[in-house]
Write a structure and sequence with these properties.
- The chain is an alpha/beta fold.
- Among the domains are: 79 residues, Winged helix-like DNA-binding domain superfamily/Winged helix DNA-binding domain (Arc Repressor Mutant, subunit A, Orthogonal Bundle), CATH 1.10.10.10; 65 residues, no CATH class; 160 residues, 3-Layer(aba) Sandwich (Rossmann fold), CATH 3.40.50.150.
- 47% of the residues lie in helices and 11% in strands.
- It is built from 20 helices and ten strands.
- Strands 6-5-4-7-8-10-9 form a seven-stranded mixed sheet, with helices on both faces. The protein has a three-stranded antiparallel sheet with strand order 1-3-2.
- Helix 15 links the parallel strand 4 and strand 5.
- Helix 6 crosses helix 7.
- The N and C termini lie far apart (49 Å).
- One of its GO terms (molecular function) is O-methyltransferase activity.
- InterPro entries: COMT-like, COMT_C, COMT_dimerisation, SAM-dependent_MTases_sf, WH-like_DNA-bd_sf, WH_DNA-bd_sf.
- Keywords: Methyltransferase, S-adenosyl-L-methionine, Transferase.
- It comes from Hypsizygus marmoreus.
């Protein structure tokens, strides 16, 4: 049998050839890490997703195999500084300041003159990030945006950001996401181990860190957190945009629904996942439900993207707490997009039970959420939903296949005591609340379909 090292190198080599071949065929140069991110169709081509994942999985496993285990652990342990430094540069607008500087970049003294941060701090933090391929150090203490750091930019100018600090993250989902991780999530991490060892102390580490009994959503409603609530809305508005709209339109089975059937987006934020459904299925009606503050934000979203939708009655924006009885009875479809993972099992069951109590015999429940996959082969998993990884890769392809998912699982544990779930976990939730599991459609965002039992 081929040695693990040789097998890993072969996976990298063969898939790099395939990737370069695809770009050559399209007469498109492969993107340089040194240049700002300028998306092309190939960047999001689903036919290349597996190729990229295999390269990343093999490269990461090769690194873990050949590097000294001491060095690996020394690199892992201070991982909180990745989060802290990314959050810092977003907070003080470094990527935005560098946006107009071009490839020649700016000296840290020039950056300091704009954001007021000590040049020595800027130099060290930017060098830490550039060492990890976020930003490029062009010449000593001169930094420019690169492929990664350019994605940290906000949509507003530095002057506009300073003039409207509460709305500084509007339209910038990735910057919002990173800022939140470096804010309440990083603060909560300091209490992570203590909370897990003493779970009766609080609902989650978040509650200890922020000295509150409130869930994060309710905490956002408190005075002084207006900008955090708005940042969360910006992050979630981009949540649906990260996924092809076909996931949602196909997931609800809209073509098979009848004229006037109602589809309810439960905990839908502003309803960004409903927008492609609204456009694809003119014969259907939609209800977007969330807490009152999100509904206010949703009004602006729909006025911008489909101003006729709400006045026509085809889209209804409804303030609703999904821990209370569902007001829309007998809908054709109730769906939850990246909601259930926010909650521990006992709360998730309450949410699904309220939907089951409101459902008609023909109602469907559709859950769009992450699928947790074991690092080893799972004999209980449906072979049709799990692709076998090539030797010697981990069954879930490591950081390439489950890196973000496993990080998100820890985030859910840290902030909400929520969880990412396996196929078995979802089936058990359904069985406990009167929903019969029908199918799992794997993909970038898996779709779990249930019928009323």
């Amino acid at each position: 049998m081929t040695s693990p090292l040789t097998a890993l190198v072969n996976i990298i080599s063969s898939n790099v050839q395939s990737l370069e071949g695809a770009y050559a065929k399209a007469e498109t140069p492969f993107p340089s890490l040194d240049d700002p991110f300028r998306p092309t169709l190939l960047d999001f081509d689903p036919s290349l997703a597996e190729t990229r994942n295999l390269i990343v999985a093999a490269a990461a496993q090769l690194l873990a195999t050949v590097r000294s285990p001491i060095e690996m652990l020394q690199d892992y342990a201070p991982g909180m500084y990745w989060t802290a430094t990314l959050g810092f540069v977003v907070d003080v607008n470094v990527p935005d300041i560098l946006k107009d500087a071009g490839p020649q970049g700016l000296h840290v003294k020039e950056i300091s003159a704009i954001n007021g941060i000590d040049p020595s701090y800027l130099s060290r933090i930017l060098r830490f990030l550039a060492t990890r391929h976020v930003f490029k150090e062009v010449t000593p203490d001169v930094f420019a945006n690169n492929r990664l750091s350019s994605l940290l930019q906000k949509t507003k100018s530095v002057e506009e950001i300073k003039a409207d600090p509460v709305g500084r993250f509007d339209g910038a989902p990735l910057a919002s996401f990173i800022s939140a991780f470096a804010d309440e999530s990083l603060k909560s991490c300091a209490h992570f181990s203590d909370m897990l060892q003493n779970p009766s102390k609080a609902a989650a580490a978040f509650n200890i860190a922020l000295n509150t009994e409130a869930k994060m959503w309710d905490w956002y409603e408190e005075p002084g957190n207006e900008w955090r609530a708005r940042r969360f809305t910006a992050a979630m508005t981009g949540g649906a945009d990260r996924f092809p709209s076909e996931i949602f339109t196909n997931g609800i089975g809209g073509k098979d629904l009848q004229e006037g059937d109602v589809v309810v987006d439960v905990g839908g934020s502003v309803g960004s996942a409903v927008l492609p459904m609204y456009k694809a299925f003119p014969h259907l009606k939609f209800v977007v439900q969330d807490l009152a503050k999100q509904v206010i934000a949703a009004e602006g979203f729909w006025k911008e993207h489909a101003p006729e939708a709400v006045p026509s009655g085809r889209v209804k924006l409804q303030a609703h707490d999904f821990f209370t009885p569902q007001p829309v009875k007998g809908a054709a479809v109730y769906f939850l997009r990246v909601v259930i993972h926010d909650w521990p099992d006992h709360d998730a069951k309450k949410i699904l039970q309220h939907l089951r109590d409101a459902a008609a015999p023909s109602s469907k429940l559709v859950i769009f959420d992450s699928l947790a996959v074991h690092t080893c082969e799972d004999p209980s998993a449906n072979p049709a939903t799990v692709q076998k990884a090539p030797y010697p890769l981990l069954a879930n392809l490591g950081i390439a296949g489950a890196g973000f998912n496993t990080s998100l699982d820890i985030q859910m544990m840290n902030v909400f005591n929520g969880k990412e779930r396996t196929e078995k976990d979802f089936k058990e939730l359904g069985n406990a609340t009167g929903w019969k599991f029908e199918s799992l459609t794997p993909g970038l965002l898996p779709t779990f379909t249930f019928s009323a039992a």
